[in-house]
Amino acid sequence: MLRRLYDWVLHWAKTPYGTWALFGIAVCESSFFPIPPDVLLIALAFALPRRALFYAAVCTVGSVLGGLLGWAIGAFFYESLGQRIIQALHYESQFALVQGYYQKSAFFYIFIAAFTPIPYKVFTIAAGVFDVPLWTLLSASLFGRAGRFFLVALFIALFGPKVKPFVEKYLNFLTILLVLLAISGYFVIRWLRP
After folding, report:
1. Which of 58, 123, 138, 159 is 20 to 30 Å from the Cα of 129, by its Cα?
2. Are 6 and 35 in contact (CB under 8 A)?
3. Whether the predicted pLDDT of 157 surpasses 60
4. Which ranges of the chain would DSSP assign to H, the alpha helix?
């Protein structure tokens, strides 16, 4: 089923509705859809590298709005809908951990989930359930999602189709590496502060 969904997402790159599909998939993925919008973002950016940054902006706006939808599902419809989404996607164990993360630093963990392949929808729904302020969700999501999508788009815009096999093979690894560098930088800055 996931493979069919993946192929369905990719097919939009070959239609005139690719940009709208990218926006819609970004909204849905942030709250309930299992396939990340990066799949379509990469396909569209490779098809038209000069529009890669535009596609990243569309993807970012859609994803942040989808984060608001996830928050609303958690805040108002968790019992009737949110719980079903978490169970259907088999994220129960991740969801159970999120409350503890939010007690430490909701902004930091939402940012990490927005930037990495960690299931972001778990964090947006949990933000509504655990009363994370909307401003925290929006700001962390905007920085994390923009960082993720613009990084991919910029890479494609700069290097073009010749890097396609590399991006497809190592995207998750590169994302995790960048997050580890960002976390290391955060701790170095905290350590250097008097």
Report:
1. 58
2. yes
3. yes
4. 2-11, 18-29, 38-47, 52-76, 83-88, 92-115, 120-129, 134-159, 164-192
